[in-house]
Amino acid sequence: MRQYRTTDFAELHELVECHPSEAGLGWIFRGQADASWPVVPLAGRPEYNTGTELGRFREWRTRAIAYADSIPENDWEALALAQHHGLAARLLDWTHNPLILQPDEKNKMADSNELRVTLKKTATDYIDCCNKGTVDAVLSLRTDTCKHTHLPSSLGVPTYNKAEYGAFFGQFIGVMNDSSIRIADDKEMVVDVESRKVVMHTKAKANTPVGEYENEYMWILTMTEDGKMIEDIVEFCDSTKAVDLMKKLQAQENA
Fold first, then answer.
1. What is the pLDDT of residue 142?
2. Domain at 125, CATH number
3. How far is Cα 149 from Cα 144, in angstroms, rounded to an integer?
4. What is the pLDDT of residues 141-172, one digit of tens each?
5. 96 and 133 share one domain
6. Given this model, what pLDDT does residue 106 score?
7. By the number of CB atoms within 10 A of the CB, which of 49, 82, 139, 217 ranks highest?
8. What is the DSSP string of 66-116?
C-alpha cells in the first residue's frame, strides 16, 4: 500500500484531487492513528467483539429513550447516534469533504480507544509469552532498554535490564516445571491510556523439586507510544511464598 504524508491542508487537498472516483471526489475514509490497524469499526475490535453486540444495541435503544426527546426509528441513524453516547462505534467514518479529514476530538477519542485495546492486548500477550517458558519468549515484547523491577524490595532482587533479566529467568528453567500463569480476572485489569500503563493481577502455579509452588503477582507494565512493546516492568509478588520456595531449594541443594 502506497503511503503519502502531508504537512498542510493545501497538500492534503491536492492529494485528494489526484484520486477521484468516476463520479467526482468520491467517498474518503477519515482514517485512524495507525496505518497498521485493520479497517474495522471499534465494535469489531477484540476488546468489544464479544458476540453480544446486537443485544447491546437493542438494550441501548430501549434505555436511551429515557434520556432523549426521540430516538431515530431507522437503525442506521440510531447507530450513528449511539456511538456518540457510550456504545462502541459500529460504523466507519467516511466523507466527501477533505476538511473533515482533519483531526478532531472525536478522532482523538477513537484513537484513545484504539490504544486502550492495543495496550490490553500487549499485556495479555506478555502473559502468553511467560507461559512459553523460554528466555526468547519472555524477552520478545521488551524494548532493548526495558527495565524489570521486583518488589517488595525485601526480596533483595535487583532491577534488571533486558539481558540481565534473560539470564535471571534462565536460572529457573528446569526448576519450574509445568508452570502456568494466568490473569486472575480480566475485568480487574486497569489500563491508563495517557501514561500507557497496564496494571494486572495474575496467579501462577508450577511443580518444583520441593513440591508444588503457587503465588500471586501484581504487574505494572509501561508500554511504548504505540502500545505494542514494553518499556518498563514492575513485578510485585507474595514475598512470603517466594522466600519459602528459595529456602526449600537451598536446603535441598545443601542436603
1. 97
2. 3.10.450.50
3. 15
4. 999 999 999 999 998 999 999 999 999 999 88
5. no
6. 47
7. 82
8. GGSS---SSHHHHHHHHTTTTSPP-S--EES-GGGGS--HHHHHHHHHHHH
